[in-house]
């Protein structure tokens, strides 16, 4: 049971770390990408409901042309692929792109199908980076015995 908890914590942590670092790297690169005129096709709020929570994500689909080839993309900024329980942030993006039909699309000159509407590093990604660090550190702490688990796999707290 302890091994499963360690693997889960580290796995989730490493996923968030990798996703965040890749988003930061691509976001930084996107500042220097060329632009092409684009057209917003849809701008909607995606809502995922499960038993305990509701998660949101802005779904903005746009099309653009590079050297006569048409592309369709759904990325607003790097790091927007993760859902958040903050409807306000996703809602702002939806409203912003519903009101605008023509956009400036920043595309990767080496891979024109990779594009973004908001180049640079979005501050939202640092939330996911923090979660990645937290889960990875917790997994390591459990693995090294710095956070003890009971035989049932629960955290045990000792009072001195």
How would you summarize the topology of this molecule?
Layout: H1 2-30, E1 35-49, E2 54-66, E3 69-73, H2 87-98, E4 102-108, E5 111-116, H3 124-143
Antiparallel strand pairs: 1-2, 1-4, 2-3, 4-5
Helix pairs in contact: 1-3
What descriptive keywords fit this protein?
elongated, 3 helices, 29% strand, five-stranded antiparallel β-sheet
What can you see in these coordinates?
It is built from three helices and five strands. The chain is of the alpha+beta class. The protein folds into two domains: 1-31 and 121-160; 32-119, no CATH class. A five-stranded antiparallel β-sheet has the order 3-2-1-4-5. It is elongated. The chain starts with a helix and ends in a 17-residue tail after the last helix. The mean pLDDT is 86.
Q: Which consecutive residue ranges, at least 5 long each, have pLDDT under 50?
A: none
H-E order: HEEEHEEH
> Sheet with the most strands?
5 strands, antiparallel
Helix content bin: 25-40%
The rough form would be described as elongated
What kind of assembly state do the chains in view correspond to? single chain
DSSP strand count: 5
The end-to-end span amounts to: 27 Å
C-alpha-based Rg, rounded: 20 Å
* Number of domain modules: 2
Percent strand: 25-35%
Nearest-integer average pLDDT: 86
Structural classification:
alpha+beta
Widest β-sheet, arrangement of strands = 3-2-1-4-5
Number of helices: 3
């Amino acid at each position: 049971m302890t091994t499963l908890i360690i693997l889960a914590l580290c796995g989730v942590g490493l996923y968030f770390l990798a996703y965040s670092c890749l988003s930061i790297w691509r976001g930084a690169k996107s500042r220097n990408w060329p632009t092409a005129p684009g057209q917003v096709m849809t701008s909607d709020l995606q809502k995922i409901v499960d038993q305990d929570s509701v998660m949101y994500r802005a779904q903005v689909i746009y099309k653009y042309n590079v050297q006569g080839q048409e592309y369709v993309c759904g990325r607003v900024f790097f790091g927007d692929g993760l859902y958040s329980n903050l409807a306000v942030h996703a809602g702002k993006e939806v409203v912003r792109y519903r009101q605008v039909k023509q956009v400036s699309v920043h595309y990767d000159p080496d891979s024109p199908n990779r594009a973004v509407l908001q180049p640079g590093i979005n501050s939202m990604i640092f939330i996911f980076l923090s979660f990645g660090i937290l889960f990875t550190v917790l997994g390591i702490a459990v693995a090294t015995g710095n956070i003890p688990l009971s035989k049932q796999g629960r955290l045990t707290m000792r009072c001195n």
